[in-house]
Amino acid sequence: MPGATSPTNVHRTIDAIWRIEAAKVIAALSRMVRDVGLAEDLAQDALVAALEQWPETGVPDKPGAWLMSVGKRRAIDHFRRQERLERKVSEIGRDLEGRQDHADDLDDAIDDDIGDDLLRLIFTACHPVLSTEARVALTLRLLGGLTTDEIARAFLVSEPTMAQRIVRAKRTLTKNRVEFELPHGEDRAARLTSVFEVVYLIFNEGYSATSGADWIRPALCEDALRLGRILVGLVPDESEAHGLVSLMELQASRLRARTGPDGEPILLLEQNRARWDQLLIRRGLDALERAKALPGPSGPYGLQAAIAACHARAVTAEDTDWIRIAALYAALAQVWPTPVVELNRAVALGMAFGPAAGLELVNSLLDEPALAKYHLLPSVRGDLLLKLGRADEARAEFARAAELTANERERTLLLRRAAAAGTGDVASRAG
Question: What is the three-class DSSP state of 229?
Fold first, then answer.
């Protein structure tokens, strides 16, 4: 792609390339230097070099390879400066000292098994030694190609706060001597569960923001989907990887219909289904079939994807197979017995068998500590009470839900529902 173009356009091109190539560059460098923090610094050096050189020389034909090459040479320079070259050379079986052709040999060696390198990087960024918040931040930083400022804005914290969170995460990995490696057996299964959790947490924050002025943040959904698709390529025999991607594709298909012209929330049964993205639905259903074709029973993500598929296949809200959804939630509760799953099952029971059935299950959850400050508990209860004609109680539940949510759009919606309780508007508001 060499050629003259405006610096602004080149910088935009570099930004797009970096988001695609950053994870591969950092992964390869991590295998070389055995230090994720140092690998990211070296990759950033390569990015700075691109920002300095490409506006003058043009974008190279293979920009990813260019970034990788510069990063590796920065690594070699680092080893030389630290007088560690001889030891590092012996570890990788190359004599690099003073010879460019040997450096080229190293390039070829490091380029091997890039898929394994990415998988190692994912396992490292999502290591259980880190807090959930740290895993999310580090994953977006190392694998999402996002800047610290972008991650901070996405999660509504200051840039210095997010920078410290990322720095602490790297220090924790170093302090605990977390190896840049592929875990095996039960350890791999446990770590993969952590990876899935982080990716879906990122997606959920985009799909239904926990706080702030926006109800959805599509960019975070896109980042999570990209990470999920990388995972499927790296662990194609893992049913839950396909299930996770299916779930995200199917839910992302609704994003355009989830908000009105002014950003106000539009909940599931009120959405214009003509605005649902049919390409994403087809991709999601295909991913679900791939998950089902693999050995073993469906896991939490596969079951949730099957639930999302019921909604995706319903041409109208009235066509929704709520009895099947209730059965799928019962199966999900067996493999993932959490209060939130039970709350969602209550919604499905209320739609399939009447609001009294749903309310009975919701009432059994009122003393659950995990739901004490969860705004959707009173919201769901309010909806069921309203359908049963208990408007005053419903109004109080919606008001309580509005107090608990930190999202401004959702608070406005709940207050509006509280004000409207008793007017006869009893349509289900499942999210």
Answer: helix
